[in-house]
Write a structure and sequence with these properties.
The structure holds two protein chains of two kinds.
Chain A: H1 2-13, E1 16-17, H2 18-29, H3 37-49, E2 53-58, E3 64-68, H4 70-80, H5 90-102, H6 108-135, H7 139-166
Antiparallel strand pairs in A: 1-3, 2-3
Helix pairs in contact in A: 1-2, 1-4, 1-5, 5-6, 6-7
Chain B: E1 2-13, E2 16-28, E3 33-37, H1 44-51, E4 59-64, E5 67-68, H2 74-84, E6 85-88, H3 100-105, H4 116-128, H5 144-156, E7 162-166, H6 174-191, E8 194-198, H7 202-205, E9 210-215, E10 218-223, H8 230-237
Parallel strand pairs in B: 3-8, 3-9, 6-7, 7-8
Antiparallel strand pairs in B: 1-2, 1-4, 4-5, 9-10
Classes of the chains: A mainly alpha, B alpha/beta.
The complex binds adenosine-5'-triphosphate and magnesium ion (MG).
The site of adenosine-5'-triphosphate (ATP) has 12 residues of chain B, from β1 and α1.
Chain lengths: ~170, ~240
C-alpha cells in the first residue's frame, strides 16, 4: 500500500527510472526499512495498467522512465487528504505527512486539521468509555483505554507542533 | 437547574469600559457535568464568578435551583453560596497562613463545630486528593499543584450541589489530573452533583457530558458527542 503512494509522491515531483525510485523510496519510508525491487516493478505495472502512471520511453542510458498521469495525481491528493483512522498506526500518518511535505502539498494544513478532528473524535469517545469503566471498577479495561488515550495525546501534541511551526 | 439568560458583564476601568460577557445564554440540567472551553480572555472565569455569586452581572439573570441570584442581598447570596456551591478558583485563593486541614475545613465552620463525621470527611478528602501526611503543613509552603489539590478538597468538603471549577487540573501532570477528574466523576456519580468545569484540556473536557465552547464573551456552540460534525468543529476551534 505505502509503496504505491510512495511512488506516486516521487513521480509527482519529477520523472524517475526504476532504480532511482528504489533509492528514493527507501529514504521516504524511513525506519520502515528497504523495499525490494520486485515489489516496485509489480507496483509500477499495476499503476500503468490503472492509468495512474505511464512511461514516456527510455532515457539516454536505455532505462525506462516513468511519469505521473493526471489521474495518478488525483489519486495521490485524495489519499493525502484522507485521515488515518485512530486504530491505524502512527507510522501511517507520519508516512502520509512525509509524502505531503516531499511534494510541498499546498493542502497540508487541511490534512493536519482533518487528522486532528479524527483524533479528537477518538479522544472524546475513548474518554467517555474510560469514565464508564472507571465507575464500573473495570480496572484492566480502564488502564487499556488510558494507554490508548496517551497515544492520542502524543499524536495531537505532534500535530500541534507541526501547525505551530507552519504559522 | 441552572438557567443563564442574556448575561452580560462590563468592567469599568477609569473612563474605559470593556464588555467581557455579551449576552450569554445557557441551560444546565441538575446532575449534569459541563466543561467550558475557549480562548484566553473570552470570559470563562468571569462567567464562573457570576455563577458563584462572587460578582454581579451588568445585565441578564442567573437562576440556580429556581432562585435568582440577582434578587438576593449580599448576605443571602453568601449563605446560598455556602450551602449550595463549591468553588475551585483559577488561582486557588487559599488562606496562606492556615494549614492544609484548616483550609479544607474552612467552609464547614459557618455551620458550627466540627463533628467527628466532618473530621472524617476532611481526612478522606485529604487522602483522595493525595495530600496524606500534609494535614498540618501551612499551605504557603506547598507547591502550586499541591495548593490546587487543597483548593479542590475545600470545594468538595460541604458536598455542594453545584461545583464550579476554574482550570482545576491546570497545574497538574496527567496522572494527578486523572486522579482529580476521577474524584469529580465519583462525586458527580454518587451525589448527583452538577459540575461546571473550565478547562483548556480536551482530555479533561472529555469527562463532561457536554462541552460549551466560549468565544468573545458569548456561547459559540455547545458540543455533544451526538452531533455529527462536532470533532471537525472542535479541531478548528482549537486551532
Ligand atoms: N475585575 C476586572 N476588571 C477589569 N477587567 C477584567 C476583570 N476581570 C476580568 N477582566 C477582563 O475580562 C476579560 C476576560 O477575562 P476572564 O478572566 O474571564 O477570561 P478567561 O476566559 O477566564 O481567560 P483565561 O483562559 O486566560 O483564564 C479579560 O480581558 C480580562 O482582562
Ligand atoms: Mg480564566
Amino acid at each position: 500500500m505505502s509503496v504505491k503512494y510512495g511512488i506516486l509522491t516521487l513521480l509527482f515531483r519529477q520523472t524517475h527510472h526504476g532504480y532511482e525510485l528504489k533509492l528514493e523510496l527507501d529514504s521516504l519510508l524511513g525506519i520502515k526499512g528497504k523495499v525490494n525491487p520486485g515489489q516496485i516493478y509489480t507496483t509500477l505495472d499495476r499503476l500503468i495498467r490503472d492509468e495512474l502512471v505511464s512511461s514516456p520511453g527510455l532515457d539516454d542510458q536505455e532505462r525506462k522512465r516513468y511519469e505521473l498521469n493526471p489521474k495518478g495525481k488525483d489519486e495521490l491528493v485524495g489519499w493525502l487528504l484522507e485521515p488515518i483512522p485512530n486504530h491505524g498506526t502512527k507510522d501511517d500518518f507520519f508516512f502520509k505527512w512525509n509524502c505531503a511535505r516531499t511534494i510541498h502539498f499546498e493542502q497540508e494544513k487541511k490534512m493536519l486539521e482533518q487528522q486532528k478532528a479524527m483524533i479528537i473524535e477518538g479522544v472524546l469517545e475513548l474518554t467517555k468509555l474510560k469514565t464508564e469503566l472507571l465507575l464500573q471498577n473495570q480496572e484492566k479495561r480502564y488502564l487499556l483505554i488510558s494507554g490508548m488515550l496517551f497515544h492520542l495525546e502524543a499524536d495531537l501534541n505532534w500535530i500541534n507542533q507541526v501547525e505551530n511551526r507552519l504559522r | 437547574m441552572i438557567t443563564i439568560e442574556n448575561l452580560s458583564k462590563e468592567f469599568l476601568q477609569g473612563q474605559q469600559s470593556t464588555e467581557v460577557l455579551k449576552g450569554v445564554n445557557l441551560n444546565i440540567k441538575e446532575g449534569e457535568f459541563v466543561a467550558i472551553m475557549g480562548p484566553s480572555g473570552s470570559g470563562k472565569s468571569t462567567l464562573l464568578q457570576l455563577l458563584g455569586g462572587l460578582d454581579v452581572p451588568t445585565n441578564g439573570t442567573i437562576q440556580i435551583d429556581q432562585k435568582y441570584l440577582n434578587g438576593m442581598t449580599e448576605k443571602e447570596r453568601t449563605i446560598f453560596r455556602r450551602k449550595k456551591l463549591g468553588f475551585v478558583f483559577q488561582n486557588y485563593q487559599l488562606l496562606s497562613t492556615l494549614t492544609v486541614e484548616e483550609n479544607i475545613a474552612f467552609p464547614l465552620h459557618a455551620d458550627g463545630k466540627l463533628t467527628n463525621e466532618k473530621n472524617r470527611m476532611i481526612q478522606e478528602l485529604i487522602e483522595s486528593v493525595g495530600l496524606d501526611g500534609l494535614n498540618r503543613k501551612r499551605v504557603n509552603l506547598l507547591s502550586g499543584g499541591q495548593q490546587q489539590r487543597v483548593a479542590i478538597a475545600r470545594a468538595l468538603v460541604n458536598n455542594p450541589a453545584v461545583l464550579l471549577a476554574d482550570e482545576p487540573t491546570g497545574n497538574l501532570d496527567r496522572a494527578k489530573a486523572e486522579e482529580i477528574l476521577s474524584l469529580f466523576l465519583k462525586f458527580h456519580h454518587e451525589n448527583k452533583q452538577t459540575i461546571i468545569m473550565v478547562t483548556h484540556d480536551i482530555f479533561a473536557a472529555g469527562f463532561a457530558d457536554r462541552i460549551v465552547l466560549f468565544r468573545d464573551g458569548v456561547v459559540d456552540r455547545v458540543i455533544s458527542r451526538k452531533d455529527g460534525d462536532y470533532a471537525k468543529y472542535l479541531a478548528s476551534f482549537m486551532a
